[in-house]
Amino acid sequence: MSDRIVIKGARLHNLKNVSLEIPKNRLVAFTGVSGSGKSTLVFDTLHKEAQRQYIEALGMVTHAGTPPLDSIAGLSPSVSIDQHLTNRSPRSTVGTVTDVYTYLRVLFARLGHRPCPHCGRDIPPPHDLESDELDEAEGPPAGTAEGSVEAIDEVEWMPCPHCAQAVVKLDMGYFSFNKPAGACPTCTGLGVIHEPNLDAIVDPERSILDGAVHGWDSFFIQRNSGSMVAAGQHYGFHFDPALPTRELGPVQRDLLLYGVHSPQFQRHFPGVKPPDTVARGNFDGVVTNLLRRHAQHAQDADYREKMAHLMRQRVCPDCDGTRLSPAARQVTVAGRNIVDVSRESLSRIGAWVENLQAVISAKEWSIAESIVADLTRRIGRLLDVGVGYLSPDRASPTLSPGEAQRLRLAALLGSSLTGVLYVLDEPTIGLHPRDTERLIRVLAQLRDLGNSVLVIEHDLEVLAAADYLVDFGPGGGRDGGQVVAAGPPA
């Protein structure tokens, strides 16, 4: 029995008392019409019960109940690779998810050439400098500036080998758009900036008292109107909340939109100290408040979607969407910067990396060789699952479910786990037919490591390559929930 998963009397959803024996350490494909019950058996019954038993075996409390069935035996720890996007952060990219960009950051930190910000001459990688003492240079002298990097704690400095002025020593953080040292200061590494959609925020035809400001209920209308009237008294101008907002003067409009602390408003009253309380006129500004809340919830996809009609998004004008600081974009390896490389497809990056030995010095190659070997293996796994057309700078939220699933599958190829139950949901969806054979080899590789691979699939090539097939039906919904056939493809 240990070489099989044995299910008896499964009754979840439309399953009609299903009993089934599934061979372990095999590639098993489940097929059938939509709603026939295959996902209910594979994901909702088998996978969830395997997870529940494993969690309980660790002594952890789980509130998941056993799905309705008589018994199930022979389960292994289960890993689900479904089609749900697990990372919707705007800071997540194909490169960060797969670690390809991480290896590129190492490569550019070790081999990067850059112009000195003081004398303009080329600064080679530290290993090519004339003296090892240069690696231990002290921090920058007073007044030294190199963009926002200067403000980062624990920055290492080194002198330029030509002019001896202090420059930042390259490290991985220098190329990360998720760290202050590498992020574009304008967009903070997002590649886009968000601007308020004023027409959606404030109705120009209505007054503040009549509900012109989006999201203000009666309490906020009274509170904020009083605060703006008080601000006018503090600064010596009249503010009328009963006027249609299109009739407000420049001072009143700047107060409403940006608040008393903003440069837009303070230009009207230079040197005048703002009020100290809301009641006396310390008003925040509609746009200022909105932008602050939007920044605080930048990682919350649901909040971003909810607020989308109030904001306009455009490519960052300073980094042109590349996310990185100007200094990071000046560093090159073999004549290319990390932005140019990251915009290429994974397959083209693989070719560029493999050709590095021919275009860099022997000393540089001695440092790059191990990095290149690891990067080549990682890219190779991504090519095997059919995503070689993706580029590392592609945002994760824009991936299709099938692409996201195949990225997770590629990550599993780097694991040496055995005895695991892998459960996949239509991994060929959206895959070009020419890449199906590669995907089949990947699934077989997982199996040959000593794992059980269960795949819900309709692709005939995958079904023919499977060791065992289970067909559900005969129809969907009430007409399904039965095993129509089970056995080797033949």
General shape: flat
Biggest sheet: strand arrangement: 5-14-15-3-16-17
Question: Please, what is the average pLDDT?
Answer: 90
- Distance separating the two termini: 24 Å
Give a brief description.
By secondary structure, the protein is α/β, with parallel strands linked by helices.
How would you characterize the overall build of this protein?
The strands form 6 sheets. A 6-stranded mixed β-sheet has the order 5-14-15-3-16-17, with helices on both faces. It contains 16 helices and 17 strands. Helix 3 (100-111) runs antiparallel to helix 13. The protein has helices spanning 38-57, 94-98, 100-111, 198-201, 218-235, 250-258, 263-266, 286-296, 301-306, 326-329, 338-342, 346-354, 362-384, 401-413, 433-448, 460-465; strands at 4-10, 18-23, 27-32, 71-73, 78-81, 114-115, 122-123, 157-159, 166-168, 192-196, 311-315, 332-333, 336-337, 421-425, 452-456, 468-473, 482-487. The chain has 490 residues and is α/β, with parallel strands linked by helices.
Question: How are the SSEs ordered, and which strands pair?
Answer:
Elements (H helix, E strand, L loop, with lengths): L3 E7 L7 E6 L3 E6 L5 H20 L13 E3 L4 E4 L12 H5 L1 H12 L2 E2 L6 E2 L33 E3 L6 E3 L23 E5 L1 H4 L16 H18 L14 H9 L4 H4 L19 H11 L4 H6 L4 E5 L10 H4 L2 E2 L2 E2 H5 L3 H9 L7 H23 L16 H13 L7 E5 L7 H16 L3 E5 L3 H6 L2 E6 L8 E6 L3
Parallel strand pairs: 3-15, 3-16, 5-14, 14-15
Antiparallel strand pairs: 1-2, 1-4, 6-7, 8-9, 10-11, 12-13, 16-17
